[in-house]
Amino acid sequence: MKKIIIAEDSSVIQNLTKKILEIQNFSITSVKNGQEVLEKLDAEDYDLILMDINMPKMDGMECAKAIRKMADPIKSKIPILAITGNAKNYSINDFKEVGINEYIPKPLNFDILVDKVKNYISSDD
Q: Which of 24, 55, 88, 115 has a 20 to 30 A CA-CA distance from 17?
């Protein structure tokens, strides 16, 4: 089963996203900030990260940069999908520069979310 980290400080969005992706047979770990993402990645392997940009302690941009600098060649290349309500503050180049593969605007369209997740990881194993 493919494993996804959802980093999102809104528990409503986190819980909805988790339920929808679990229906698709993904294993979900939820965290509230970028610092927790890095702790989880240190401990385990994951297939994808869904990351809110605006989070306390360490935001999504900082966290993405830190992930891309990880020594582990597999973990440093994990796909990162940003979830953001204010993408207007950033250009797609800003996201690419820190290593974010793609972003999904809020309010979330869950059909698009599931499609994008499946583009990066297929859950057929």
A: 88
Q: For residues 100 and 82, what is the distance between their CA atoms, to the nearest angstrom?
A: 7
Encode pLDDT of 27-64 as tens digits.
999 999 999 999 999 999 999 999 999 999 999 999 99
Q: Are 78 and 47 in contact (CB under 8 A)?
A: yes
Q: Has residue 124 been placed in a domain? A: no
Distance (Å, rounded) from C-alpha 56 to C-alpha 31?
A: 11
Q: Which helix (H) or strand (E) holds 61?
A: helix 60-68
Q: For residue 85, what is the domain's CATH number?
A: 3.40.50.2300
Tally of structural domains, the chain: 1
